[in-house]
Amino acid sequence: MKRLLLTGNGAAAWGARLAKAEYIPAFPITPQTEIIENLAAWIDSSEMPGRLVTLESEHSMMTAAGGAAAAGVRVFSATSSQGLLYAMEMLYTVAGWRVPFVLVNVSRALSAPITLEPDHNDVFAARDSGFIQIHCSTCQEVVDAVLLAYRLAEHPDIRLPVMVNLDGFYLSFTREPVTLPDQQGAAEFVGGFDPLGMAFRAGAPLSQAVAVLGGSQYSYFRYQQHLASLQALDVYDDLEREFFGRFGRSHPAVEAYRTDEAEMVFLMTGSFATKAGNAVDALRESGIRAGLVRPRLLRPFPVRRLRQVLRGVRGIAVIDQNLSVGKGGILYTELASALYGQENAPVLLSFIGGLGGRDISGEEFIGIARVTIDAIRSGSVPEPRLLYTADELRHIRKLQAIASVQQENHCRNHE
Amino acid sequence: MSESGMQYRGMEDFPSTRLFGSGTPMCAGCGGLLVIHQLYDLLGSDTVFINAAGCMTLLSVYPYTPFRGSWLYTAMASAPAGAQGVRDALDILLESDRLRREENLEVVVLTGDGAAYGMGLSATSGALDRGLDFIYLCYDNEGYGNTGQQYSPATPHGAATSTSRGNGGFRGNKKDLFSLWAAHNPPYAATVSASEPLDLARKVEKLRSLRGPRMLLAFSPCPTGWGFEPAQSVMIGNLAVQTGIWPLKEFIGGKVEHTVLPEKRLPVEEYLKRQGRFAHLFASSAGRDIIAELQGAVDRYWEGVR
Ligand SMILES: Cc1ncc(C[n+]2csc(CCOP(=O)(O)OP(=O)(O)O)c2C)c(N)n1
Ligand code: SF4
Ligand SMILES: [Mg+2]
Prior knowledge:
By secondary structure, chain A is α/β, with parallel strands linked by helices.
């Protein structure tokens, strides 16, 4: 083991290297590029065996990833945002092929308007694709999650691709101290790739990804994917314990921070959760029994574990760094469905924050906690709200004024 | 293997075993299927067919397949990328001694024209850029056949399709995929027609002796989409060659060579009048003008050849 200062992107690349990924179809997109650049450099200098091929799009990249995995090699790939959506058809397709490989997504908000900074709408757009999803909030988690992801993907009871998510900028470009497992330990943990009969070879013909006729066959195979994904709940717990035994770091499917005796908790994913953790410390110091719950596994959704962790909690502030336009926060909806009908279910509050990389301040976390405690006491739950300050609104009004002056000038020029 | 495609001098040199299974759900008289039959007998089962969405996707419907070798259906746009992943994986396995030489496969993309000329063009160009070692078979039925023969970038000028039913038929012009391939300077590209099996077999033999991106662009009469009797499929192919509408040629060593020169070209009318999709051209003077235009284009093409 060695300790290094690594960006989230660096950690993701190390994950692929330590897992001995041998084929890396790639396509550049900010903020993911550093991952494939690192891998390309290692391969070029023979520090890492393997083959990296730049396709002409993410759609093709995902097809090549699936094709190579179907032919029996260990595959790694990475993308972001527009790239993930460009590949969307193939995300569903390769999950249906039941090919095990790992895809890192570096979250970035979606166009339009086009921007570079993160939120989670990209990864949530792939929520129903059949990929297993692990969401990270530190650079350490990224490298560890990639190793865990290979074990999950390749598990005989699962055989699904796994997506490991990290936030653009806040993790991708931020250096943190990361403890790297040594190559041998990592290789022992991940093990060799077993194609389990999935291969193309002369003398052993195999038809993969064939069409079906009719809903009965389709339903069967599609539901098989679902059942395989659900298997990943228990398998993840086992793997996570094994990982802890070997490397001394624990990454449970649902992280519960200071939830003991908690009256309210923040529930969220991603790098901003570390700020929520700081807010929890401050709130506890001032006598408010706050906690933080962070699902790492988003697919399969760890319903049972969440119910356990949230037992006794009276109010939950769900902070969604995403927006289902016309509905609201996606995590909020997911959690509501997990808790509906539970005895003594807590009140659920919905906050949308951090869209397009907008910061969530410590003060805002404290404010959210207050509002949540009020709702617990009064029994009246406020409407979902966007984290947005009066200052920000004033600023946007200024920009709008400039834009309309520009527009008037433009119109006048055409008169 | 003999050199330069000379193994096939007559039909007696063809493989006597039929490798490709029968009983597929393709329409009777399907010209695309005819080409696949011929190609498969020549290539054999040490192949993996990487398919793009189209009529031929329904060749392999769970749990049946007419292929004795392997198959992977991908999507409409990205069959060449699927071929890239499979080829790369096979190479990795060969290099690391996890696949023996004799277990190696030829990777074959099977695509319709809609995917080849349009949605999949970027993926195809990418595979050409990367020098991917694969065979690319495009069965060209000049429309989106599987979805009901709407016009595609391969539809000829004037043809009626489900989305060009107006008087003039399709307003656009057929794209020149062969030249697009040639512009990438691949080791091999050729046009073929199942009505000329000897020419086809020689081309297959030649491309098998080469590595890298190799295309066969196959004329594929489609009784269902073009409006003719299934029994006339081969005749339509013959007429396409004899009128000069479908030139048989190959790109090899950086040069284009025509492999069949129609001695006395028949008028294009002979080809057009046998297909429902061109019937409207014979019913008006504007239609006659379009026929004259089509004849003019064919004449100009062949003037350039001689
Ligand atoms: C992304 C996408 N868009 C549309 C379709 C619907 N579709 C399936 S087959 C097909 C026609 C393909 O035409 P072509 O490549 O010429 O093959 P053919 O059907 O003629 O055999 C279309 C449009 C699809 N499968 N995928
Ligand atoms: S529609 Fe045409 S190309 Fe498709 S199967 Fe029928 S005859 Fe063949
Ligand atoms: Mg077609």
